[in-house]
Amino acid sequence: MANAYGTLRERRIHGCLVHIDLIDGKIWIQQDGTEEGIAADLEGAGIPKEHIVLGFRPPELRPYTGYAVA
């Protein structure tokens, strides 16, 4: 049974809501489990779209996202 401390039967449970890497001067969003999307928050903070890569999208679809492709 799970409890409020992130354990299940004495084993630690870990989940990643957001995973961001900095690669070659760009922000790569590898995982985004937020409702609105972390990319919108980054834009709101003044980071240009061409500096944000949606790494969780397949490479062939990235050109259609409005964000950097790599």
Compose a concise summary of this entry:
By secondary structure, the protein is mainly beta. It has one helix and five strands.
Poorly predicted ranges = none
Tally the beta strands: 5
Task: Please give the alpha-carbon distance between the first and last residues.
Answer: 42 Å
> At the first level of CATH, what is the class?
Alpha Beta
* N-to-C series of helices and strands: EEEEHE
Class based on secondary structure composition and strand pairing: mainly beta
User: Strand-residue fraction?
Assistant: 25-35%
Number of helices: 1
Enter the CATH topology name.
TATA-Binding Protein
**How helical, in percent, are the residues?**
10-25%
Task: Give an overview in words.
The protein has 70 residues and is mainly beta. It has a single domain (16-64), classed as TATA-Binding Protein (2-Layer Sandwich). The protein is 10% helix and 29% strand. It has one helix at 38-44, and strands at 7-8, 11-12, 18-23, 26-32, 52-54. The strands form two sheets. A three-stranded mixed sheet has the order 3-4-5, covered by helices on one side. A two-stranded antiparallel ribbon has the order 1-2. The longest helix is centred in the middle third of the chain and has 7 residues, at 38-44. The radius of gyration is 16 Å and the shape is elongated. The mean pLDDT is 88.
